[in-house]
Amino acid sequence: MRHPIRGPEFLSPADPVWTRRKPARRRFQRTRLGLLTVVVLLGPVEALSLQPPMASARRLVSLQGRVLDAQTREPITKALVSIQALKRETLTDDTGAFFLKDLPPGPIQLYIGTVGYGVARRHLDLQEDTDLEILLGQESLRVSEEITVTAAPFDPLETGVVSERTLNGTELKNLANVLVDDPLRSVQSLPGVAATDDLRAQFALRGAAPDKIGLYLDGILLRSPFHTVRDIQDDGSLTVFNGDLLESVSLISGAAPAPYGDRLGAALTAFTREPGRKKMFNRATVSGSSLSFTSEGPLPRTAKVAWLLSVRKSYLDWLIRKLSEDPETAAAFGFTDFHGKLSFRPNDRHQIHALAILGGAGANEKRRRGQLGPNAFLTADSDTRVLDLAWRWASSSQTLVESSVSATRELAHNLNRDGETLYQAQFEQFAWRGDVSHHRGSRHRIEGGVFVRSIREETTRRRFDFSQNRFGTLNRYLATAWLPSGYLQQSWTPWSGRLQITGGIRTDQFSYTGESVWLPRGSLSLALSAGTRLSLAYGQYAQFPDYADLLGEFRFRHLRAERSTHILLALEHHIKENFRLRIEGYNQQERDGIFSPDAEYRQVGGQLLAPRSGEVLRNNLRGYSRGFELFLQRRSANRLAGWASYAFGRSHRRDAGGLQFDTDFDQRHTLNLYGTYRFSQSLNLSGKYRYGSNFPIVGFFRSEGGLFFLSDQRNRLRVPRYSRLDLRANKAFHLDRMRITVYGEVMNVLNRKNHRFNGINFIRPSGEARLRSDSILPWLPVAGVTIEF
After folding, report:
1. 695-739: per-residue pLDDT in tens?
2. Confidence band of 117 (pLDDT split at 50, 70, 90)
3. C-alpha of 471 from chain center
């Protein structure tokens, strides 16, 4: 056994090993022992001094993760992931994955973005290898953590809906024109939608006029939320709220469930989005006709309260004069609107938000005052205000309670060259809404609600009577009424979710006429296989008469609600999870429609008849709207996405006197195409094409030798076919602390000359009618830019 090393003073001279060694050998041993002692004593110090240089530096770390679509959780390819302070960046691969290695530990700011999606920023303190999952929202300002995730690209937003088309954030932006940046113009490209007037945001669907389609904003039924000149025929319109405010837009084409009422046709629902709660974020946009600025973020020192503000100001009046061939005669139209939302989340179960939309528009013809007649407007002003205070309470994981109080106000005032009032109107709606939904397990859901509205309208409409050489009043009324509504609906999904059955009942009452209606609704949806579903829906609908019908120029105080019955059958097959083929047929029976031929110019037995004021309107119209829609859709965050759709339909009416005609918005053939492709993290190309066989020229007219004459048959002539192709490119520049996106669009690429007819200029004693018509948007390149910071 070897002994531990000891100093020479501990060695015994009598030791036999030492005694046999020679003096030189003993001196060598003593030297060696001394060196070993020095090594033992100084070893730790020497070890520190002899370490390689990298051993004394901080250990490097790596950062990896995946970038996913926040709504569908689909991997996003070609997304830019960068740490700008370190000048390090990479792109996500086909699985949405990214990897950054050899990063120094410490705080960093991670930037994630790609064209068509919002910007996400993450503040991280890297001390070890880190793995992240990033959710990006489409064309949104908010941070990714606050986006609600849904299960599949085509999941319906409403319970019991059979026919629903939704627009996500990217689609809303690409389909809205760069010229006007109007979110409701995006809806015009949806399957089956008919819109052949480029100057108006309204649209028709399945033969139903725009005023028969319900427009809901956060559950509030709005009447006319548009910037426009009211009470004229050749008007244009823009939606009073911009796309930066919206979370999603959904169009229920037919057979809407029990929560929707007081409209005969489709229901369009728009939901405002929640403000971002992580940090302040801003967006400034210059579109083809307006400037806008949007800002959002949390209040200082708290994330429970967040705000969103948006302001939009048009320079459309200046643009029209610049583009007009005769600037001296061009009408000047402009608008300004403000949007604000305040959201308060005291805890996970309660949420309160306040919404305000304030907008004003005006037009003037002052440049051609001398050419205006007494019935032409010189100035026209309109104003729209929407206020909403809402509360949401999740009382448990199965029960949700929602309540809101809202107020809507619309004003309009048109003056002629002499300061005479041509039209003045004030519409006010105050409403309270309460909804409750309860899940009984995973298979049963019951929901109900009450919606109470108070509607007040005051209107004056005046025109100059040349036969009497003075102004006469056509309309003057003031009316107020209550419209209480209630619904109850239950959904049941047996057979492991393969079958869904929804049944409901709705009731509405109109206090002015004292009429009440009861409207049953129901739907059934059966999964024939993993990717194929057959759906059937039925519903009855009613729309009460407007005050203009009850008290206006052609008034009749005893009008009843117009009624319709929807029957819908749909077959949908998912070729892949994000790729579907859908065939949908519909039959809508209409009755008690409000109409009278005595309210229009016509010719009967060779005699010219002018509109007859007084009690002429009746509930004497009935008929049908029938057709089918076929569309193919791919929704994806990568490569090609979009849809191709064709719709055929016929909408026909017959009055009590035997007069038969196609409805004012009957369009037999409708083709809507849309496609978008994201080539890289900074470049996206998209295009849309819309074709329509077009609507009738409304009225009793016939054509002979290129001229128009009055007739005894209604809606027999058609506006020429509508065709328009638009191409758009979005180019993003990712800079330090901001992103700049440039939008370029060519409208009406093929320079198709589309027309619209807007009424009668005059009628000769011979029966010849000179109709007012004009062409709409020509080939027009336009650009815009958005700065996000």
Report:
1. 999 999 999 988 999 999 999 999 999 999 999 999 999 887 788
2. confident
3. 44
How far, in Å, are 523, 613, 624, 665, 682 from residue 538 at the CA level?
A: 6, 39, 15, 23, 46
Question: Which residues, in sequence order, are CB contacts of 32 under 8 Å at separation 6+?
Answer: none
Q: Are 213 and 263 in contact (CB under 8 A)?
A: yes
* CA-wise closest residue to 231 among 454, 421, 477: 421
Distance CA 728, CA 735 (A): 23
Q: Write out the two tokens for 716.
A: 């027999």
Higher model confidence: residue 713 or residue 605?
Answer: 713
State how far the Cα of 516 lies from the Cα of 525, in Å rounded to an integer.
30
Q: Which residues pair with 113 in a beta bridge?
A: 80
Rounded Cα gap, residues 143 and 164, in angstroms: 28
Cβ neighbors of 169 (< 8 A, separation 6 or more) are: 117, 118, 137, 138, 139, 140, 248
- DSSP string across 348-411: SSEEEEEEEEEEEEEEE-GGGGGG--TTS-SEEEEEEEEEEEEEEE--SSSEEEEEEEEEEEEE
Amino acid at the residue 174? N
Alpha-helical (H) ranges within 682-774 are: none
- Please say whether the beta carbons of 91 and 734 come within 8 A: no
Give DSSP secondary structure letters for 600-628. S-EEETTEEE----SS--EEEEEEEEEEE
Range 454-489 burial, b when 16+ CB lie within 10 A, else e: bbebebbbbbbeeeeeebeeebeeeeebebbbbbeb
Q: Burial letters for 760-789: b for 16+ Cβ neighbours within 10 Å, e otherwise? A: beebeeebebebebeebbeebebebbbbbe
Q: How far is 564 from 209, CA to CA, in rounded Å? A: 14
Closest C-alpha among 330, 332, 413, 418 to residue 374 = 418
Query: Can you point out the beta strands (E) in 187-320?
Result: 193-194, 204-205, 214-217, 220-222, 226-228, 237-239, 246-254, 267-272, 281-286, 290-298, 305-314
The closest alpha carbon to 521, from 506, 501, 500, 536, belongs to: 506
Across 469-475, average pLDDT: 91
The residues, any chain, with a CB within 8 Å of residue 626's CB and separated by 6 or more, are 586, 587, 588, 649, 650, 651
Q: What is the pLDDT of residues 212-222, one digit of tens each?
A: 999 999 999 99
Beta bridge partners of 722: 692
